[in-house]
Specification:
The protein is of the alpha/beta class. It is built from eight helices and ten strands. Helix 4 runs parallel beside helix 5. It starts with 10 loop residues before the first strand and ends with a helix.
Length: about 220
């Protein structure tokens, strides 16, 4: 008697996105149109046919001291908030102003910088790697990390020690950052082709009728 075999169980994938690392890479490339990014669609482009995307973790911090940038970021985060909450979680770090002294003129000025994102990414990668789903299966089999931050090298090596596979995806123009990819199982660099078809709609209408519009600075550079 022939037995109909079921489809092989797909490998569970979680994607971890360093929001600021990706943002600054896009800004340097002047790819503003890609900043209005549907991170779920982008993540789906990165997985193989034998894999299943179960979650995207997006890490960022709320900008301070720049009203225009704050407005654009708020619009973007509000837009991400309309995506499937079962597949996307946004994790917030801190944005701090610190006093810096110029070594040449000895003047002091305020420098804004993001804090906690690298730690948050490390913690969730480790936690997900040792956690189980409700049915007792692994929460994740393969991890995809979108960043060029070499501070993640120890975390990548650690989760690989747990038997997980790690793909490091370098933001555009970061191909020379080789330290982190050396810690992973595989690597690739994001190109314009990967971003195609991954923009959020220019106008998103929420359930209450409120409209979220793509900032003109990004909409006018749509590709």
């Amino acid at each position: 008697m022939n037995v109909l075999l079921g489809s092989p169980q797909k490998r569970k994938v979680i994607v971890y996105i360093d929001g600021f690392n990706l943002y600054f890479a896009l800004r340097e490339k002047k790819w503003r149109g890609f900043m209005w990014l549907d991170v779920i669609k982008l993540s789906e482009k990165l997985i193989r046919s034998d894999q299943e995307l179960v979650l995207v973790r997006y890490f960022t911090s709320r900008i301070k001291n720049d009203p225009e940038k704050q407005k654009r970021q708020t619009l973007y985060l509000d837009a991400l908030g309309t995506l499937d909450g079962n597949r996307l979680v946004i994790h917030y770090g801190d944005y701090q102003s610190i006093a810096v002294t110029c070594r040449h003129c000895n003047k002091k000025f305020q420098h804004d910088q993001e804090k906690q994102t690298d730690v948050n990414i490390s913690v969730y990668m480790m936690s997900d790697s040792i956690s189980k789903s409700a049915d007792g299966s692994n929460k994740v089999d393969d991890l995809i990390l979108i960043t060029a931050d070499s501070d993640q090298c120890p975390s990548v090596r650690a989760v690989r020690d747990f038997g997980k596979k790690v793909l490091v995806v370098l933001p555009p123009g970061r191909g020379e950052y080789i330290e982190l990819p050396r810690s992973a199982d595989s690597r690739l660099e994001l190109t314009a082709k990967k971003f195609k078809g991954c923009r959020l709609p220019d106008v998103i209408t929420k359930g209450d009728g409120f409209e979220i519009r793509c900032p003109s600075k990004w909409a006018n550079d749509a590709r």
